Amino acid sequence: MQPQDTAQPQVQAFFDPATWTVTYVVFDHPGGHCAIVDPVLDYDPKAGRTRTASAGKVVDFVRAQRLSVQWILETHAHADHLTAAHHLRDVLGGQIAIGAAITQVQQVFKGIFHLEPGFHADGAQFDHLFADGEAFRIGNLQAQALAVPGHTPACMAYQVGDAVFVGDTLFMPDVGTARCDFPGGNAHTLYQSIRRLLALPPDTRLFMCHDYPPAGREPAWQTTVAAQRAHNIHVHDGVGEDEFAAMRTQRDATLEMPVLILPSVQVNIRAGDLPPKDDNGVAYLRIPLNAL
């Protein structure tokens, strides 16, 4: 007999200290089905070289648990790490999916990077584009895509049973919330997205995409709705939308661009595929000067 639907998916996290990113494998049971959330492709910005060591840890776990990959889920087009989605699909199968608003992000960055004519800002680089509220399954698990724009227009959280993978909407309570100054970002919109997540039941497990721990704390990435509502330094209960937007706008004005934003976005809007090779057999990333 196969297990029945459960509100308690099993979650395995993989923390990448180079980018402070957490990749997840969420699955129904050993020998069952899984989704991989926000996988990391290792990138050395000094040498312009990619590696798959971090993705290899995910592959090893999936194979050890005898899991069949149904989905490779991107919460958004990340600006701080390259995605290993394309590589993992080649190795493990599954469909690469992201929110349908990725087309807005692609359109903006196609212009910024002046990408090749063959790059179409239609989302076709991904296997599936989720609509807000769209239901899907991971084996015996029920799941739903929740649009949470604000950090970017295409941000999507994924609710799987009692677990929600929130992307860059929220960080751990002592770190706060995501920046909103990237193209298409909006602090008022982010506030509304966060309140949508914090309206879920108090014991809902929330899984962060990143952690930037303050001094003295080890990296962490799991919390609850109740903990965020009580303790998030930017958006705990009682903080209003205008107050949040003013704080976020002021804070964002002091932040530098992420170290890997230029290589990351070029690859991530392609679902992890590298740019097409030139006639010398080498793929090139583009660095727009004075554009961001």
Topology of helices and strands:
Layout (H helix, E strand, L loop, with lengths): L9 E7 L4 E7 L5 E5 L2 E5 L4 E3 L1 H12 L3 E6 L8 E2 L1 H8 L2 E5 L2 H12 L14 E3 L4 E4 L2 E7 L8 E5 L2 E3 L21 H12 L6 E3 L14 E3 H7 L9 H12 L8 H8 L24
Parallel strand pairs: 3-6, 6-8, 8-9, 13-14
Antiparallel strand pairs: 1-2, 2-3, 4-5, 4-7, 10-11, 11-12, 12-13, 14-15
Q: Could you characterize what this model shows?
A:
With 292 residues, the chain is of the alpha/beta class. Helix 4 crosses helix 6. The strands form 3 sheets. Strands 1-2-3-6-8-9 form a 6-stranded mixed beta sheet, with helices on one face. Strands 10-11-12-13-14-15 form a 6-stranded mixed beta sheet. The protein contains 7 helices and 15 strands. It has a single domain, classed as Metallo-beta-lactamase, Chain A, CATH 3.60.15. Mean pLDDT is 95; it is low at 1-6.
Task: Give me a quick take on this structure.
This protein is of the alpha/beta class. The protein contains seven helices and 15 strands.
Distance linking N and C termini? 55 Å
Which range best describes the helical content: under 10%, 10-25%, 25-40%, 40-55%, 55-70% or over 70%? 10-25%
Reading the helices and strands in chain order gives EEEEEHEEHEHEEEEEHEEHHH
Count of alpha/pi helices = 7
| Global mean pLDDT | 95
Number of domains: 1
